[in-house]
Design a protein that fits this description.
By secondary structure, the chain is α/β, with parallel strands linked by helices. It is built from nine helices and four strands.
């Protein structure tokens, strides 16, 4: 809630949204929080995709032009093992920010919530070295987090998730017209696991 509140105030301060629309978005967010949908509790998502009074592209352009930070496409990055083991996924979802790379003492964090001081303060306290910030979209963060959680789920299981979720159908036992049932294949016919990417809205 603090991350969203501070982001909303910054959007108004930078003339990216008006106070009336922000108040409506805050009311809507409280409804979403009450319905226990933490991953949908984003005031930016409500303003941009539900109310359509703001474009994420405008926020990103502001970050580049006024805040001097770069942008990153998280689809180009695999999750490093160290970050995967240590990342607080709840905090990542709550702040719409993900540490995606490290080099020497530097930690690279992509965020859709850079304008929220609460978000920056939280993550900068998590690492002993400097943090380099990059802007990205809500969808970019959601895609990255879904990919991370799928990798963790597959690592914990000795079998592919798709096989556990849907067992292969049993071979038929009845003989029709004198023809015996087909011999079941010796190798699994299950397709590789595929996940639906949750789009932030």
């Amino acid at each position: 809630m603090n991350a969203n509140r501070r982001l909303g105030a910054a959007l108004v301060d930078h003339n990216l949204v008006n106070i009336e629309d922000l108040e409506k978005a805050n009311e809507r967010m409280l409804e979403i929080v009450a319905s226990n949908q933490p991953r949908q509790s984003t005031v930016l998502g409500i303003l941009a995709y539900e109310m359509k009074v703001l474009k994420e592209d405008d926020v990103l352009a502001h970050l580049v032009e006024s805040e001097g930070i770069g942008l990153v496409d998280l689809r180009e990055y695999d999750v490093s093992e160290d970050l995967k083991k240590n990342m607080d996924r709840g905090a990542a979802w709550a702040t719409w920010s993900v540490p995606f790379d490290q080099e020497e003492d530097f930690t690279f964090i992509a965020t859709a919530y850079y304008l929220s001081p609460a978000v920056r303060n939280y993550w900068e306290k998590q690492f002993s070295g400097p943090v380099l910030w990059f802007g990205t979209t809500l969808e970019g963060v959601a895609d990255f987090m879904e990919r991370l959680e799928a990798e963790i789920a597959n690592t914990r299981s000795p079998f592919p998730v798709a096989i556990l979720a849907k067992p292969a159908p049993a071979a038929p036992t009845a003989v029709k017209n004198g023809t015996p049932p087909p011999i079941p294949p010796t190798k699994s016919s299950a397709k590789p696991f595929s996940k639906d990417i949750a789009k932030a809205s």
